[in-house]
């Protein structure tokens, strides 16, 4: 009889352990999704703001050539840095998820419940090119 009790205690502990790992993997999966969504916010903001900024600069070009040059040099640096930070956060989130999905004993729970690895964020060379501000000004 005591062997049966020990068996059920071990089974219960195993179930609790599986639930604990499952919940951690769910959190990691959602963190990756959140990180990916956060990446989309800033490029959209850049897309909306950059043409407005250039139009404003065009209107004042004849009055403030020096200001225009400073704006072109600054190139909305803060926004670009924020985009880079979010991309880095996404890759960090993906890396943590991918490591956990492969580590033992988490890999057993991950396979059992269909948790998967996510790809790291990579860009083609053309997607990494700078925006041609001169071309935007000549429109």
Describe it.
It is a single chain. This protein has about 140 residues and is mainly α. The protein has five helices and no strands. It is rod-shaped, with a radius of gyration of 25 Å. The model has no long low-confidence stretch (mean pLDDT about 80).
Helices and strands, with pairings:
Layout: H1 2-60, H2 65-74, H3 77-102, H4 106-113, H5 133-137
Describe the structure concisely for a colleague.
The chain has 139 residues and is mainly α. The protein is 78% helix and 0% strand.
Task: Give the overall form.
Answer: rod-shaped
What is the quaternary state of this protein?
single chain
Mean pLDDT reading: 80
How much of the sequence lies in strands comes to under 5%
Helical run tally: 5
Low-confidence stretches: none
Distance between the termini: 86 Å
Let me know the largest β-sheet: none
Structural class of the secondary structure composition? mainly alpha
User: Total strand count, please?
Assistant: 0
Radius of gyration over C-alpha positions, nearest whole angstrom: 25 Å
H and E string: HHHHH
Features:
mainly alpha; 139 residues; 78% helix
């Amino acid at each position: 009889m005591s062997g049966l009790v020990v068996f059920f205690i071990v089974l219960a502990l195993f179930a609790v352990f599986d639930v604990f790992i499952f919940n951690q993997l769910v959190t990691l999966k959602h963190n990756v999704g959140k990180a990916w969504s956060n990446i989309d916010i800033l490029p959209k903001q850049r897309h909306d703001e950059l043409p407005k900024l250039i139009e404003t600069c065009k209107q004042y070009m004849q009055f403030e050539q020096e200001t225009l040059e400073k704006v072109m040099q600054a190139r909305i640096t803060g926004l670009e840095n924020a985009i880079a930070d979010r991309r880095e956060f996404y890759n960090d989130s993906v890396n943590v998820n991918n490591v956990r999905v492969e580590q033992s004993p988490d890999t057993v729970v991950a396979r059992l419940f269909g948790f998967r690895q996510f790809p790291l964020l990579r860009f083609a060379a053309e997607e990494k090119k700078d925006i041609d501000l001169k071309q935007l000004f000549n429109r």
